[in-house]
Specification:
This protein has 164 residues and is mostly loops. Helices cover 12% and strands 0% of the residues.
Length: 164
């Protein structure tokens, strides 16, 4: 009935498609219904006939982010900056950072995120010992001179990095 001899027909009791050895394919995705994990929805041959809207080779049913291409390690969700934190959970999805800072960078490791750190390459006051009285005086005088010089030349004050 389907053009496949019963001896060669994988589905001899039902009419099917010649290219699928006589088996039916309800959703016309070139996966025989007997092999199709999603026989009523057209899908990808490599995924046993199940759909994959974002082409990341993770079936939509198993994909936590079915409309955005992602990684199998994150159940189909992306990690744009490759820091091991999915974009949805990453506070800084385009800049790599550790989980301890919710994916945001802190280059100097002082606990102040780079985006909020006036001196991202120099450890800040959260992680340094308080300076001695002499160092405080030296820093205050140096800071006053630098800020005064900037003000005279119309330059906006900026943080003094490395003198904490």
């Amino acid at each position: 009935m389907d053009g496949v001899a019963d001896g060669d027909d994988r589905c001899p009791d039902v009419p099917g498609v010649l290219t699928l050895m006589g088996c039916p394919d309800r959703d016309a995705d070139n996966v025989a219904d007997i092999d199709d994990r999603c026989p009523d929805v057209a899908g990808v041959v490599a995924l046993a006939g199940c759909p994959d809207r974002d082409d990341d080779m993770i079936t939509d049913a198993e994909d936590d982010c079915p409309d955005v291409k992602g990684l199998a390690a994150f159940k189909g969700c992306p990690d744009t900056d490759n820091d091991g934190i999915t974009d949805a959970q990453d506070k800084c999805p385009r800049d790599a950072g550790p989980a301890s800072t919710q994916g945001c960078p802190d280059r100097d490791g002082d606990g102040i995120l780079d985006a909020n750190d006036a001196c991202p390459n120099d450890k800040g006051p959260l992680s340094t010992k308080p300076p001695s009285r002499a160092m405080q005086t030296h820093n205050s005088i140096l800071a006053w001179h630098m800020q005064t010089a900037r003000a005279r030349h119309g330059i906006m004050p900026m943080p003094i990095c490395g003198f904490l």
